[in-house]
Amino acid sequence: MDKYFFIHVPKTGGTSMFRIFRDFLGPENVAVLVDFDQVDVEAVSRYRLLGGHIPFNVIKNFGERRLLTLLRHPVDQLISKYYYFRRPTTLAPGDLEVQMSKELSLEELLSREQNDALRLYFNFTVWLLAGMGDRRHAIDSETEALRLAKNHLAQCHFVGILEQFEDSLDLMSYTFGWPPVENIPRENVASDRMSGQRIDSGLRQRIRERCYLDMELYDYGVSLFSTQKRQMMRAAVRQRQLADPVCEVAAPINLTEPAETTAQSSPPDSEVVGTGQVRIIHIEVLSSQGGRGEICSGETVTIRVMLAAYEDVDAVAVGLSITNPYDQRLFDCRSSALGVQLSLRKGDVREVLFCMPFRLALGTYTVTVSAYRCDGGGALDPLRSALPGEAKTVCDVIVNAATIMVTRFAGARFGGVCDLAPSVRTGANRALVERFACEYSQPIIFSATGRGNRYLCGGWSDPEEWGTWTTQHSAHILFAPLRFPNRDVVLKAAVHIFCAEAFPSLTAEIVLNGQQLGQWCLETSEVRILETRIPAILTHGPFLHLLFRILDPRSPAMAGISADSRLLGIGLRQMEFCDTSDL
């Protein structure tokens, strides 16, 4: 499986790129490096994608990786960097570049005589790609630095240009076999930056002259990008000419008019559907190529369903239903039909994995999952996922639990509906214990690079640099406790909430293994340390299933702050199981 390194040139859209990487590869496979001297190389080498403002010469320490970077016109990059450094929130004591930006106007900087500090300030990209960062004395001359930078840029498997961002993303997806980027994020934009219209042509020309090394490297990068783009277009033309004929399999569904909706409307996930004896706490779609959610037609897909038992329950099965955007049900499957039923004891957590070749046409498909108990005379499943004549009692249902996007073809093309022919198996309990193992009295960090992400199940956002948000009414975390004491313990968490003028407070219920421990009532967006006592009897089992039930989540769009439609509740930064008052 390929691994990657993103050489993040400052102020070139890197924050948006990392958002895209996390969407493609999964947040647990992406790590941002801040200071190489503080990096545990062995620990981070497991990540599929690493990136940061890292000089080229140290990338070799992270093993064989495919290299990618993004360039920006040096004049615009310099202006963006200058006004970003001038922000009151940009604090970097001892950083000469930040200090100069805060103390001097742009005109004053341009009027200063050239020295080593200003040479780096105006031509940082060359020094970064040359491989020396700010250690300019290690390179004999500017000519040598530019030569090295061009040579290293040519070694990159992908070179993008910010001024052609959409085309760059298409080229990146083509180069690495990733799906196309449908929604392009725009993040980390300096809000107080001057617009290009307010900086006159004379000042821009002076900046161009001071960025003379970066200008030459940028022109070289544009030529590399143009060459790669032409190669992609020619390959697309050849592929169109040589394309395999479409293989129609089974009877295609008429998609000219949307069919009458047959799927049940999704109930609020703050409510328990069914008996609640067994809860579905996590659903994950994995492709054979390592992707998440976006696949190639015909590719093998594994749908992982994780269940937590709140009572002793026998003969538990899982139903799976796949529908198209017109709410037409294309496929139903149930583990009981394939000989898989579970006998669960209170506190158990088990996995059921459906593995199938996803032979469907291009499009977006939704997955609905149900957990039910096969018995002699229970209520009928509203999703009819039981065998004909098989009476059952519904324990839990999650409608539209996951989406699968078929974005491209490999080999034969499929139109219509095919037999997905799944196999099903259960995950080993020992593997789950190893995966979710949690040491007592050890801080758990939920940032993008923290180890806490391994414990997150359904209901959480992609981790960010500070931590992660709840994005549904119910958000699940799973732990397998190791060496917990035989006494009551305290759960401590560093949290904050999303609040606005229209939503000044938030309430969350804390549930552990089906037992409510209490409520958190928060009225400020500031970080708070909250404590909840856990009775010893709840920590004796193999798993701790922690549920945050958010009673009144809200989105930034609802508050009129931004277009972000995620239902944000609690922002989780850190957590610890302990018996002291110190976090």
Q: Could you please describe the fold and organization of this structure?
A:
The protein is of the alpha/beta class. The chain has 3 domains: 4-237, P-loop containing nucleotide triphosphate hydrolases (Rossmann fold, 3-Layer(aba) Sandwich); 278-427, Distorted Sandwich (Coagulation Factor XIII, Chain A, domain 1); 435-578, Sandwich (Jelly Rolls). 22% of the residues lie in helices and 31% in strands. It is built from 12 helices and 27 strands. It has helices at residues 14-25, 41-44, 74-85, 96-103, 106-111, 116-122, 124-130, 142-155, 165-176, 201-210, 212-241, 429-435, and strands at 4-7, 30-33, 49-52, 66-71, 158-161, 246-248, 278-287, 294-297, 300-309, 313-323, 329-334, 342-344, 349-357, 363-374, 392-409, 413-415, 423-426, 437-439, 444-445, 468-469, 474-482, 489-497, 506-512, 515-522, 528-534, 544-550, 570-578. The strands form 6 sheets. Strands 8, 10, 11, 12, 14 and 15 form a 6-stranded mixed beta sheet that branches. A 5-stranded parallel beta sheet has the order 2-3-1-4-5, with helices on both faces. The chain has a 5-stranded mixed beta sheet with strand order 18-21-26-23-24. Strand 10 and strand 11 (329-334) form a beta hairpin. Helix 7 packs across helix 8 and helix 8 runs parallel beside helix 11. The longest helix has 30 residues, at 212-241. It starts with a strand and ends in a 5-residue tail after the last strand. 37% of the residues are buried.
